[in-house]
Amino acid sequence: MRERTIASHFVRAALRGAERHGHDCLPLLRQLNIQPALLDEPRARVAPEQFAHLLQLLWERLDDEYLGFGRTASKRGTFAMMCHAIIHCRSLEKALGRGALFYSLFPEAPTISLSREGDWARLSVDDSSLLDPDHFLVESLLVIWHRLGSWLIGQRIRLEEATFRYAEPAHSAEYGLLFPCPRRFAAGSTSLLFHARYLSMPLLQDERTLKQFLQHSPADLLARPDGGDSLISQIRRLLGRDCSNWPDLEAVAQHLHMSPQTLRRHLREEGSSFQELKDQLRRDLAIYLLGRDELSTQDIAEQLGFSEPSAFHRAFKKWTGLTPGAYRAQEN
């Protein structure tokens, strides 16, 4: 769903490189209608369009696709040139290998490597050369390369595991949208594991489709969290946008061919619950609808299934730390 929102943590993290280089980021935030006070609230969130636009503005301001997190800049156009270098490869394995070789030509660039482990393939990023305290760039590179590979072969590459060299961060609940698979922290490397069968698949894209792809990439790849075929994403799709007509847990379990008890257990294992999923979906829809000036907060409360506006106000403040009116004022 396009309404999936982005946690304020990622906005703060994206700005760190520019701030380290002495750039005043307040004009950028104002240009995007993101008030600095919004970033001081850990529960606050922004629309994906705002986040994608922020990344594009940072790339332009810094002329650096590494957003100021590398020891040397990666000039704008480098990613596009890499894509042109790999688009005619005969298989995904050749394309990923050539892409990794392309970036290895640049001194002090993060090392990207592809290896086989029996029936599995592992794409790793060595971030030891980066000045990236929030790990924003290394996580972005993993997401970009996964989604680039999926686009090249015309199907989503199912991830089996994501590993990270660092300890589990406070915002790890957000990782389900970026890495819809089991995640392991304090691991030996930062990597993605997937089945090696994808590597032999032919590329289904060409120069024509690449031109269209590059109009919005890689910013759009990062700003559109994709839960893929995870249980949580399946449930979000089943619930849809009509909050007043949501199926109950028993109906969702039946649709997924499992018992309600099994569904609850699986959600618990993923660190969530049915009620929490409904709250998160309502929150994301609320933020999306508040961006539409023609809707009053009462209209939005009704669309979200609240019996009265005051209940919506209380719920929204619990979700984001701000009232709907204050949030809308921040956005305008």
From TrEMBL:
Keywords: DNA-binding, Transcription, Transcription regulation
Signal peptide region: none
InterPro entries: AraC-type_N, Homeodomain-like_sf, HTH_AraC, Tscrpt_reg_AraC-type_HTH
Tree of life domain: Bacteria
Listed name of the protein: AraC family transcriptional regulator
Single GO term (MF): DNA-binding transcription factor activity
SMART domains assigned: HTH_ARAC
Organism (species): Pseudomonas taeanensis MS-3
GO CC annotation: cytosol
The keyword Lipid metabolism belongs to this UniProt entry's keyword annotation: no
Domain named HTH araC/xylS-type: residues: 229-330
